Amino acid sequence: MSDLHLGLAGVGRIGVMHAHTIVATPGVGRLTVTDVDADRARQVGAEVGADSAADVEALLAAGIDGLVVATGTAQHPELIRAGVEAGIPVFSEKPVAPDVALSLPVLDFIARRDGVVRIGHQRRYDAGYLEAKRAFTAGELGWLHAIRAVTCDVTPPPVSFLATSGGLFRDCSVHDFDVIRWITGREVVEVYARGSNNGDPAIGEVGDVDSALAVCTLDDGTLAVVTASRYNGAGHDVRLELQGSKGSIEVGLDERTALRSAEPGVTFPGGTPHTTFAERFADAYRAEIAAFADLVRGIDGELCRPEDAVAASKVADAAQESLITGVPVRVG
């Protein structure tokens, strides 16, 4: 399978990015795309040199070797099932389904059909996160006494998106919850969350917050603090700090980190901060698609399994519940 034929369902913002990435991935010889907007599918296909299919049924009938799902969240379950039913590997953007309750039947379907499905948590293929995991696993940090995760966008997405995203913890911090589990190998057992709205009042009107903090307790007692914001004028800021009994390490601390030092004479960082998640994780997205191509060939890697994606979503659900109730919530 040196020249794979991959299919892509959904050519919105992230789907277009995946389309460009897929056609540039070594070993992929052909891409076929589809979208509920058939004209857009044809347009994007022409832009990247891909074929287009009228619908998902036609896409699967085209003889694709693997399916990439980049549609809206509500369509993820049916497309994952369709790919599994067709007997091909599936890579779907997170989450598995709009909520955990809807995700569980999908996990059961995948298990019963022995399906090969992975979920998009691209930070697992970012060089910094990989090094942090290596250092912790190798014992270089000792035991962890503190974990701090930050994810901040420069400006918020459209309020229309926020109205259906499930909240800041579910659409943003879920990536932090995933990498905390992935790096430490521990489960989050309790979450206490707080949030605020100091930006656009419309964000609060649709039930979301523009800034939030969650204190997470892991099953070995380690504490992790996860913060997120929709308004970070300094730039797109994504970092993870692991402080241990032997050493500490920080992901995302480089010349493009979206902060400045208050110390006299210190000019670090001196680069231009990232402005979008696509820019910050461009290399990780490329590595993630390359890993999916390997998976289609039968070579597994660090791609997020659906059960792990749902586990991260459970933490996000607990954080959202705590945000609403104002009390700590056990992760169910």
UniProtKB/TrEMBL annotation:
Residues 129-250 form the GFO/IDH/MocA-like oxidoreductase domain. Residues 5-121 form the Gfo/Idh/MocA-like oxidoreductase N-terminal domain. Keywords: Oxidoreductase. Pfam families: GFO_IDH_MocA (PF01408), GFO_IDH_MocA_C3 (PF22725). The keyword Oxidoreductase applies. GO terms for molecular function: nucleotide binding; oxidoreductase activity. The keyword Secreted does not apply. SUPFAM superfamilies: Glyceraldehyde-3-phosphate dehydrogenase-like, C-terminal domain, NAD(P)-binding Rossmann-fold domains. InterPro entries: Gfo/Idh/MocA-like_OxRdtase_N, GFO_IDH_MocA-like_dom, NAD(P)-bd_dom_sf. Belongs to the Gfo/Idh/MocA family. This is Myo-inositol 2-dehydrogenase/D-chiro-inositol 1-dehydrogenase. It comes from Kineococcus rhizosphaerae.
